[in-house]
Structures are given as structure tokens and as C-alpha cells.
Amino acid sequence: MVKRILICCIIALAQSVSWAEVSLPRVFSDNMVLQRGMPIPVWGRADPGDKVVIRLTKHQCEGVADAEGKWHIILPAMKEGGPHEMKVSGKNTVSIKNILIGEVWVCSGQSNMAMRLCESSNKKTAVPDGGYPEIRLFKVRKKASAVPESDVEGFWKVCDGRAAMRFSAVGFYFGREIYEQIKVPVGLIQAAVGATRIEAWTPREGAAAVPGLEKFLKKIDKADAAAKKPPDPNAKRRRRGHPTGLWNGMVRPLVPFAIRGAIWYQGESNVSGPAKYDLKMKALISGWRSAWGQPPPSHSGAPGGDFPFYFVQLPPYRYNKKEQSDEKSCLLREAQLKSLAIPNTGMAVTTDLVRSDGSPALHPKKKKDVGRRLALWALARDYGFKEAVFSGPLYKSMSVEGGKARIMFDHTGSGLTTRDGKSPDWFEIAGQDRKFVKADAKIDGNSVLVWSEAVPAPAAVRLGWHQEAQSNLINKEGLPASPFRTHKRQVSDTMDP
Question: Full-prediction pTM beyond 0.85?
Fold first, then answer.
């Protein structure tokens, strides 16, 4: 009996000591990168009422754990540099070593973002023998949750060859381009899961703020209500997952870790139902920004909380194997194009990233091009490369001159051209009947003339309106034009599936 009491006392004491210790989420660990130029939130657990002190470089800040044992301390903005050591003290002291201060980006989406560097082309020359000591990688382990989690599984790694090969190829190439251009430490946080829809990554607050997503909001509320009920042991197990489960399990626990912005590569799983994808993008982006609620970096002109969000347009692919020209993928690309109306966003076009034999691929291996194109937006918008050409041609307007349509573009760079030196292809033209036919096209300055003898009175033009379209139109900087159509959406395009 005495022995049993003694064991119980030891267990109770161990539990008491564990609870009393200061602890932090895993995103605060050795080798991490903290965002420069903006206040740095740090948070964790301790005994209720305990004083917590943080020391980093010359700064010392303190706070007190609340009644639930949670504490939250904000360090002042700092300049890039390192390595540093952070000490977090309460009843115990936690030391976090080899910290750099630089630029932090979240890399999220589905399989094309999750695709590892070792699966991409040019992988053998991607990482030098010495690695990139000032690039750090944090890979969030896959987890969907019915409730917002407080932590993720993962840890920071210095970017050597082994760590890079297991990391997102798009994320790596994006971060490497940023690092090589601005020579500042870069931290990349990967939170990506293949075959996932945009809804799973969207906070409820984001969906609630966007009119037109009432059905999605009802699904979230229904799932939230079900999650609060005790499980029925007699009911059949039908685990369909929570509609915002990946936000709850993989992104929400990172908030409010200070970040510069996010890159996003997703959409393949929404091709079957592209309706309202632009609204869902707005809900995702506004939801993330609202959750972080962070001020802009001290050297940035961006409005508070509107951190950069750069995304990738879907590549050409036979998304519908039964139909030669499936319009759903075209509608989703159009929704992605429309998402550029959201403030502080940018889009990388990938219509040219196909296999070496010219056939389209769902998972293009040329991830270096994708990462670089995303980085061009960041360099131009966020890092002072004001003169850089960062986008391919985007449709601006159409006028009719006799029997020809003139298409004007934004982002023509130093001029329009074609990838193969031939006339622009994948253009179609229609009259008022909207019956499209293949069109001839000719570059004329910073515009393209489009016509067909079968359409004497042009009323509408479209480019790349096919699931496998690989338009050859680019600017002279080599960035491809986005697919588009000039006419207004039809009612059927915006119906909820």
C-alpha cells in the first residue's frame, strides 16, 4: 500500500512539474526563421499566473500566463541577421538556438505544392554541396481536425540537400529565388496535402464574410455542431471529415506566427465543380489574413493585414478523360484569373509547362519555373524590384476594327511574341451567336489581331479555352499569357453545383 501511494505521488508530482514548465508550439524551435521588420508574436503555456520572460538579441519582454495557462508576448520588430538564441524563462528556461531573422512564407495547397524537390526536373543541380544555410524549412505533418488545434507536428531544418529533396519543390525554388536576389535569410513553412479541395483550407470567418457561400457556411456550422456532440457508440461510423479540417489541423495552429505572406498551388480537386471558385479564393485569402491580423512590415506600403498571397493557375491537362474539350477546367482557370481582383495577389501561369514530348501533365515536373514565376511577383511587389516584369500577358480589352478583333493586354513587358516563332495559336472567335471557330491571329505591337472569314462581325474572342490548351503567346521575358474569354459569363457558369 505504501509503495502504491508513493508511486501515485511521484506520478502526480511529475504531472504537476510538466504543467508548470514553460512550453512553446513546435514552430518555435532550433533553426527557425523569424520575420524581420514587424512585431514578432511568441506564445505558449505555463502555470496560470506565472511570469514568462523572453530574451532575444538586446530585447527582453515579459508577460503573465492567464487563467488557462496561456501566455502571449510580442517582441519588437528586428532587422535581418543571426544566428541568435532565444531564452524563454518561467519556472524553467527553454533555449532555442541557431535562429535567423529574415523573410517567412507559408507554402500551401494540394499535390502540386506537396510535390517534393526529388520528384522535379533539374533536381540534381538544385542544391549545392554546402546547401543553403540561410534557408530554413518547416514541413507541417498532415492532419485534419474537426476543431482548431493548438499545435502542429514538425520542426525546422537547415536547407541541406537531404532536407530540400523532401520539401515542396515549388516552395524551395520560390524561396531560393528570393534568397538569391535579396540575400536575406528565408524561412519556408510547407502545409500542403494532395487531392484536397480549397474548402478544407478555408476558415469559417472567411466563408462568412463572402456573400454567395451560404451553402458552404451551413456545412461548416453543421459539422461544428456535430463535433461538439458526444459520439454515439451505436451509430454507424461515417467519417467524412470536417469541411475546414485542414485549416483547423495544419494552418490555424501556426497563427499568429509572423509571416511575410503565402504562396498557393491548388485547384485540381475543384475542377469538377468550378462554380464560385473565385468566391472561395476570396474566402480563403480574407480568412487567412483576418486570422493572422498582423501589421505590415515596417518597410512595406501594404495595408495592415493584407499580406501578399500569390497563387498558381492550373496547368493544361485532360481533366475529363471522356470529353475532348471539357469546359470546367477553363472555368476554374477563369476563376483564378478573376481572383487577381483581390488586393495584393498575383498569379503564375503554367500553360507552357508540359512534358518533354509536349503532352500535358497534371503534375508538371518543371517546378523551378513555377517557383520563379511566383517569386517574380514577390520581388516586384514586396522587395523593391519595381522595374521587373513579373507577369505574362493578361487580357485587358477588345475592340472591333472592320472584320477583325483587336485584343489589348496588360503586362506585355518589352513586347509580345510567341514561344515557337509561329503565329499566335489557340485563339477562337465568334459573332453574336457565340458559336466559336478557330481564328487566325497576328501580333500587332502590344495587341493581337484576331479574325476568321467565317465570322464577318466579331463579338467575342477567347484564348486557350480547352482543358489541354498550350497557347504559344508570351511576352519577350518568356512569361505565358493567361487563358481568357472576352464575353461575359453565362448564368450556368455561376450556378452552385
Answer: yes
